[in-house]
């Protein structure tokens, strides 16, 4: 069973203007997928639908076999914890410390204080920021901020990590570090979807699957040609 299934998904914000129009896509557990397309193609819209922040106008999105837009109100927080998200602009609490930012999703999930402490320590070790635990995020470089955001995104061990132009504000060196960490997250079994307009990101993970959004439809990038995703 694919982890993520999209069947005939259409999405419009304004009646008659479809961003996605008949989008079909299946993502297997453990895949690393680049979602490619120019600015405005609908990449963020698709990620927001996977997070449950936007609903498809038509069609269905199933995650682990469940229609995530039919979840009862009480099941939504638990679903959201199974999906981590990283943004181009980090979306950290800038005045709060690195450790506080990473601890937040653990506290929100009701983890006991001892576990929060040990998990934050492990996460900061993972992203190489254990020495900055007490530093306010606004004093970090962009690359460091994105590593904090990544630690926060995987704090509750999500099944899926979504990233929307995660290196869009970073220099090439910091981008390489962040992509290396995403690869490490993937190596631990997490399904990873990275949305970007930047083909140079592909070089970091050449073996990753590539899907393009064009005129509201997903296309699989094949060796010789592109084929519509069925
Ligand atoms: P991408 O991430 O590929 O740049 P987006 O999903 O952000 O694309 O945007 C796709 C299109 O949808 C754009 O034309 C954008 O202006 C429009 N759009 C995105 N969000 C909204 C919204 N909340 N309301 C109206 N239009 C939106
Ligand atoms: P360990 O394998 O002993 O936990 P690591 O250095 O490999 O040590 O990872 C440290 C921490 O980073 C883990 O405990 C976990 O909290 C976090 N981590 C790393 N990768 C992931 C992932 N894919 N999903 C969730 N958490 C992760």
SS-derived structural category? alpha/beta
- What is the molecular shape? globular
Helix content: 25-40%
First-to-last CA distance: 15 Å
What series of H and E elements makes up the topology?
A: EEEHEEHEHHHEHEEEE
Alpha plus pi helix count: 6
Low-confidence stretches: none
Number of strands: 11
Alpha carbon gyration radius? 18 Å
Strand order of the largest sheet: 6-7-8-3-9-10-11
Query: What is the makeup of the main sheet?
Result: 7 strands, mixed
Strand content: 25-35%
Ligand names: adenosine-5'-diphosphate
What number is the mean pLDDT?
Answer: 95
Keywords: ATP-binding, Cell cycle, Cell division, Nucleotide-binding, Transport
Protein name: Cell division ATP-binding protein FtsE
Family: Belongs to the ABC transporter superfamily.
GO biological process, one term: cell division
What does this protein look like?
With 230 residues, this protein is an alpha/beta fold. It contains six helices and eleven strands. Helix 3 crosses helix 4 and helix 3 packs parallel to helix 5. The longest helix is centred in the last third of the chain and has 16 residues. The two termini are 15 Å apart. The mean pLDDT is 95. One adenosine-5'-diphosphate binds next to helix 4.
């Amino acid at each position: 069973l694919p982890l993520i299934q999209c069947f005939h998904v259409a999405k419009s914000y304004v009646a008659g203007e479809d961003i996605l129009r008949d989008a079909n896509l299946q993502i297997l557990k453990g895949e690393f997928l680049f979602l490619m397309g120019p600015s405005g193609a609908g990449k963020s819209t698709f990620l927001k639908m996977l997070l449950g922040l936007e609903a498809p106008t038509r069609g269905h999105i199933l995650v682990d076999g469940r229609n995530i837009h039919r979840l009862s109100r009480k099941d939504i927080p638990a679903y959201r914890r199974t999906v981590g998200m990283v943004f181009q602009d980090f979306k950290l609490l800038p005045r709060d410390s690195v450790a506080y930012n990473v601890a937040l999703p653990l506290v929100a999930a009701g983890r006991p204080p001892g576990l929060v402490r040990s998990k934050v320590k492990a996460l900061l070790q993972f992203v190489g920021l254990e020495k900055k635990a007490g530093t306010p995020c606004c004093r970090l470089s962009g690359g460091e901020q994105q590593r904090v955001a990544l630690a926060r995104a995987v704090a509750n061990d999500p099944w899926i990590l979504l990233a929307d132009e995660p290196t869009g504000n970073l220099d090439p060196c910091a981008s390489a570090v962040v992509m290396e960490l995403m690869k490490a997250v993937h190596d631990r079994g997490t399904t990873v979807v990275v949305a970007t307009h930047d083909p140079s990101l592909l070089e970091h993970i050449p073996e990753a699957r590539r899907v393009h959004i064009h005129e509201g439809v997903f296309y699989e990038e094949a060796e010789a040609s592109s084929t519509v995703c069925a």
